[in-house]
Design goal:
With 334 residues, the protein is of the alpha+beta class. It is built from 12 helices and 13 strands. Helix content is 35%, strand content 28%. The protein has an 11-stranded antiparallel β-sheet with strand order 10-7-9-8-5-2-4-3-11-12-13, sandwiched between helices. It is globular, with a radius of gyration of 20 Å.
Amino acid sequence: MILAMFDAMDFAIVHALQINPRVSWARLGQILMTDPSTLSRRWSRVTGDRRVWSSCFHVINAQLRDLATAVVEIGCEPGRRQSVIERLSGEAPVVSIHCTSGARDLVLTVSLPDRVAVDRYVDEVVGSVPGVRRMRTSYFRRVFKQGSDWRPYALTAAQARAVSETLPTAVADPKPSPLLLELVAAIGDDVRRPISGLQGRVGRSLSAVSRGVDALLVASWVSWRIDFSHDLGGWEEVMLWFDVPQSDLENVAATLRRFPQLRWCSSMTGASNLIATACLRDIEELDEIERVIAVRFPTTRVTDRAVVPRIAKRMGHVIGYDSRLERYVPFTTG
């Protein structure tokens, strides 16, 4: 494992902004007992160095329904993996690209308005890329944990609670509106973009923009993300596929969620009906996760496991070989 290029305060800022991406530096400074200007400078440094990046996007289609999302496993011709990555990384529907060990070379996450669109896209676009030798598509069913919910656990429970209390409150889930959708696009790849900058992009009053941002912070159909280079931060990822009896599915997912290493977990179609990713400080941590599942759920099988030595794209952010951000490809919903 490489030497981590973050310190405890860097991770504390990341953790805090994962809870409330718009918390003021002044308020966060009070919670962390650190000068606000120091926090601002550190955020500018880690984002300027392309070690940390952020995004805001909605997860609904034009009919205000959830997008259809699939995992597409790809086997590449020898020596062609990088050219496949270069061709697909600029594609908006391909939101993530993981390079993996094992029976596949790449694992893509593809999102489009419906499964018909995903099926056609995988066949006509992904399948036509030179170097793609084979594909297997599985559709998400129920997401038990979102990747945006994973935390580096750099805050104390009291600090995390204090940051949570800075979020706006809402009596009801805000509904999508033209202004809110415009604001999502305007925030895009910078969740700290000032209100004045957002006003210039959407052409509304400062008060309307401020109220809109508060609404987006609590909207269930909006995802706010603060991501960082796990490689440079000293973490590595693994992917697990499970075959779980349907009667145990929720209990297995709940057990996995208790592990702080769990980043993301969803039921899916296919021979394996549950998929998960975990962020580990040491690969040996995987043994304990598998041991607990095996003891508590003896009829559940781990059907495959893969190390993720490189993430080439994560939720629209294209990441280079040096594990730093290269560019952002905005989502489209078709």
